Amino acid sequence: MKEPLVSRILVVSGLLLATACTGASQGHLVPADKELSKEYFRELRARGRRAVYRGDELETIGMPVGGIAAGQLYLRGDGTLGLWQIFNKHVFTGYGRDCYRTYRPDSPVDSGFAVALESDGKPMARALDKNFGMVEFAGEYPVGLVRYRADDFPIAVEMEAFSPFIPLNARDSALPATLLHITLKNTSERTVTASVLGWLENAVCFHSARAIDANRRTRILDERGRTLIVHTAAKAPQPKETAAPREKIIVADFEGDDYGPWQTAGEAFGRRPARGTLPNQQKVSGFQGQGLVNTFLGGDRPHGTLTSPRFTINRKYINFLIGGGNQVDKTCINLLINGKVVRSAVGKNDEKLEWHFWSVADFAGRQAQIQIVDEAGGGWGHINIDQIELADIARSGLTGPLEELPDYGSMVLASAEKGNIAQHLRIVPPRYSPRRDVDYHAESNAVYPVDRKKAGVVLAPLVELEPNAARTFTFVLSWFFPNHQQGREYANRFDNAADVAHYVLDNHERLAGDTKKWHRTFYEDGTLPRWLLFRLHSTVCNLATGTCQWWGNGRFWAWEGVGCCPGTCTHVWNYAHAPARLFPELERSAREMQDFGEGFHTDSGLVGFRSNHAYAADGQCGTVLKAYREHQCAPDDSFLRRMWPRIKKTLEFSIGQDGNDDGLIEASQHNTFDINFEGPNTFVGSLYLAALRAGEEMAREMGDAEFAARCRRIFDSGTKLTVERLWGGEYFIQLVDLQKHPKYQYGKGCLSDQLFGQGWAHQLALGYIYPPQQVEKALGSVWKYNWTPDVGPYNETHKPERWFALPGEPGLFTCTWPKSKYMAQGVRYRSEIWTGIEYQVAGHMVWEGMLDEALAICHGIQQRYHPAEHNPFNEVECGDHYARAMASWGVYTALAGFEYHGPRGHIGFAPRLTPEDFRAAFTAAQGWGLFTQSRKGAGQREEIQVRWGRLNLRTLAFLVPQRWKQVDVTVRLNGKNLDNKSTLDAKRVNVNLGDAITLSTGQTLQVEIRPQRQKTD
Ligand SMILES: [Ca+2]
Ligand SMILES: [Ca+2]
Ligand SMILES: [Ca+2]
Fold first, then answer.
1. Residue of 155, 273, 661, 679 with fewest CB within 10 Å of its CB?
2. Across-strand partners of 157?
3. What secondary structure letter does DSSP report for 281?
4. Beta-sheet pairing, 939-959 with 906-909
5. Tell me, what DSSP letter sits at residue 743?
6. pLDDT of the residue at 224
């Protein structure tokens, strides 16, 4: 049914503004009826089981299994390790279809595990990978799980892989290490002698290996009953030079009008060397003279090769300048001997050319050719080369000592038990590893040139397994690369990778036990649908990716997505609730050291939104909300006391933008859509009102009654005026003069984020900032007009700037115009789908009781990120593992109706799904556990069980059925009744214990709520 809409013209501040929602929604390409069946919604609510993926679905999976902010290591679907971005280099993967594509994460470092066994006295082995036989992935972040079995193999295997992950214990969750539990089970009818063998390539100096003169070293050590493969690197001993270096020989300087005797193929090289920067290219620098090879000829598209004539290698090195794309085999320079590539180098996705060298002493006297290759067409699909020379002295873009290179450090693979590989060398990897360029060995001390690929091999003890018997072997993979520009927090605690491995094994029981206890509490013991738990927790893995850093000085810092854009961006992190609830210490450090530290302008109260001088209206208001959340997630008020003067100033800056204390911000509002909104709107406006409420609460706690009253006054005015001026009949609109601001506005459009601040207000137990009926109506409109089961029809007409959902897939559009003409120059990213906004909206819907809609939106994300198409652990936006996606935790807290105020000792729950039988994990300031609510017979029973740490409590709140008019409340701890004062206010039972109590691990607080018999009258 279409709502009749009032057409009206408002005159505000002398400007003529058309504000009403006029026109019908006919032709709106989002269907109002989503055609989702009752069965579908029923299935969404079903508890269900752990997801298991097989076959082609394994290809896309890459679950982060390293520690928080310790780099990015993937467990791939088949149990092999991938990505390996642990060497302090940040790789931006692009956006839209560049990162939202179907692919298998690569594995540039060779490592793996195999089952080794003796059969009839013959050693044999089978690698744990997709060729094992039947392989299935059943991982749920943070615990990876892969199972293997095969009809022709007597052993079935289950492998768990994870880095310790213990909410509220950031340090033990931020270890540069992965634990592997490999369980072998004898499925045959005979006794089998078996073990597990592991190998790891030495990848120290991973990026710089070909530009430095160094050795790698591998030791295999038996220490403390464990066997460790320890990989490091060291400066190569300088040979005693007797002869002076010979004169260098220029192979090519590309100064001529043509390529001379060099042969071109394809289009990328043109007829002559380039003269510097080409049209539409970023500035090219670092070359010598006037000319160079530059294949950005008409852009990245052209391909081709440029091949030198043969020459004799008669010096120790070949030096050259290189810049451009960093695509291996595609934008590269190769050294060919007999037509075979023996050395290769790529650029660094930087137009600047830098020196690079190959050590070629091994090839002295041989005939060689150089070939420059451009076989790439997309972004950074070109190569820049200049000044190729034969010389006795190496030239390198890398300066300074080896020990200071970003990728210098150490790596370890440790078996928790000592084995004897020497006796079983016949089963080492060359027999089954796909890698042919790696040399496997078990030498106790091997030193070799840095550009050689060598892997160490370790074997756990051989054990006899009777039929049906099982045995678990434990391994630790650890790394230590401390030379991050800002240092790494983990380097404050460890000296090298062996140190890390020993720490993990010394504390194995606790670290693995607490991690699995969290997994069990969250997934197994909870009652929420398993698919939903999977989805909502999956994004937390972003903490364990290149997106996040934890610096040596204790500051948590993050990109928006891996490698782009910098500065823990306030407006993107406005959405992310997971880190604050799981590791509040990290978010407190971001507030204290960035927002109210380096990024804070003491003169004005401006919070630079990337720790800079720039204002973002949504980020500024969000900083106040985050500060209140961080206070609520703290054990006491010391954070608030320290930060309050700056929090107040931050809010005063926003009040200054409001200008006249009327609660509406009219000034230009830069925001997360990378544009500025002009005039009042409820996107920034709702954040502003919620921030005023948070400011009021904090001011009261700090005894600043005057400021509290001022916040309340502005808030009340803002609420009133918003309803008067911005309510469009079905949803909130923007008051904007489109004559003056024709671009990037939404006017009468339906913005999905129009109630962002209201969702935040619920997260912080701040209540309603707009009338509940309008909030509900507006959220209903967001569902009706912006969520579609198939983005195809809408996106065919209104193409998104970037594709994060493809035709056939469901999603929630950023903004649509159901009641007015589509604004072709409207708010940027208007026709895109962002998971962070979807979770934000879904979480808010849960608070309003719109469960079907919320579950459908989340399930839409689950469908898009099904491993048949996309890595379920990598929700992308501008780059991989986008921070905004961590908004998912807001859905989780909403489903429990969770409210918490650590310093006050207050906790509350109001389960939205199955309140008659509900269980969910919760996290507080210093402890976490399981909350249970059940309704049996006449009463309601609540249990708060602490499973880790401790929990201080003074007040509690729960919801009871509406029909209960008066209640009796009993509180019990350790078998004793506790005194309490309890009140019932509408459906809400407030329990006051008087003095605070402390629950420690293992303790359960029980609350029985019984309705009093109604007097009949
Ligand atoms: Ca030149
Ligand atoms: Ca190209
Ligand atoms: Ca104002």
1. 661
2. 148, 184
3. P
4. parallel
5. S
6. 95
CB of 30 within 8 A of CB of 787? yes
- Which residues, in sequence order, are CB contacts of 281 under 8 Å at separation 6+? 294, 296, 351
Bond preceding residue 142 cis, omega within 30 of 0 = yes
> Residue 256 CA: which ligand is closest?
1
pTM of the model as a whole: 0.89
Centroid of ligand 2 to alpha carbon of 142 (angstroms):
40
- The alpha carbon of 285 and the centre of ligand 1 are apart by a number of angstroms equal to 11
- How remote is the C-alpha of 964 from its chain's centroid? 44
Rounded to the nearest angstrom, the distance between the alpha carbon of 736 and the centre of ligand 3 is: 14
Mode of pairing for the β-strands spanning 470-480 and 410-415: antiparallel
Q: Are 812 and 857 in contact (CB under 8 A)?
A: yes
Q: Which of 242-256, 683-697, 711-725, 773-787 has the lowest mean pLDDT?
A: 242-256
Q: Return left, alpha or beta for 365; rule: phi > 0 is left, psi -120 to 50 is alpha, else beta.
A: left
Contact yes or no for 936/929 (Cβ under 8 A): no
- Amino acid occupying residue 199: W
Q: In what order do the strands lie in the sheet with 177-186?
A: 53-54, 134-137, 144-149, 155-162, 177-186, 470-480, 410-415, 226-235, 214-223, 445-449
> What is the rounded distance in angstroms from the CA atom of residue 115 to the CA atom of residue 108?
23
Q: What is the dihedral of CA 385, 386, 390, 396, to 10 degrees?
A: -70
Residue 696, token pair as written in the block: 């009021």
Amino acid at 541: C
Amino acid identity, residue 748? K
Determine how many CB atoms are found less than 10 A away from the CB of residue 640. 19
Distance of CA 20 to the CA centre of its chain: 40
| Coil/strand/helix, residue 315 | coil
Predicted confidence band of residue 855 (pLDDT cuts 50, 70, 90) = very high
* Residue whose entry in the numeric block shows the structure tokens 């199955």: 914
CA–CA distance, 332 with 372 (Å, rounded to integer): 6
Residue length of the chain? 1017
Dist. CA 680 → ligand 3 center (Å): 8
- The CA distance from 680 to 667, in Å, is 8
Give the chain's end-to-end CA distance (angstroms, integer): 44
Question: Among 20-24, 573-577, 680-684, whose mean pLDDT is lowest?
Answer: 20-24
Tokens of 288: 């010598």
Among 754, 594, 596, smallest CA distance to 671 is for 754
Rounded to whole angstroms, what are the CA distances from 65 to 377, 455, 920? 33, 21, 24
Q: 350 alpha carbon to ligand 2 midpoint, in Å?
A: 14
Indicate the SS3 state at residue 253. coil
Using 50, 70 and 90 to split pLDDT, how confident is the model at 871?
A: very high
Q: Name the pLDDT band for 23 (thresholds 50, 70, 90).
A: very low
Q: Which ligand is nearest to the CA of 281?
A: 2
Alpha-carbon distance of 525 to 922, in angstroms, equals: 12
Write out the residues surrounding ion ligand 1, Cβ under 5 A.
253-254, 288-289, 291, 386
Q: What torsion, rounded to 10 degrees, do the Cα atoms 45, 51, 57, 63 define?
A: 110
Ligand 3 midpoint to CA 660 (Å): 5
CA of 395 relative to ligand 2 center, distance in Å? 27
> Within the chain, how many helices (H) and strands (E) appear?
17, 50
- The ligand minimizing its distance to the Cα of 270 is 2
Q: What is the residue-wise DSSP string for 420-462?
A: -GGGGGGGSGGGT-S-SS-EEE--SEEEEETTS-EEEEEEPPP
Using alpha carbons, list the distances in angstroms from residue 704 to 645, 690, 700, 902. Answer: 11, 18, 6, 20
Identify which of 744, 928, 772, 793 has the alpha carbon closest to the alpha carbon of residue 848.
772
What is the distance between the alpha carbons of residues 145 and 701, in angstroms, rounded to a whole number? 46
Please give the distance, rounded to the nearest whole angstrom, from the Cα atom of residue 869 to the centre of ligand 3: 47
Indicate the DSSP class of residue 886: G
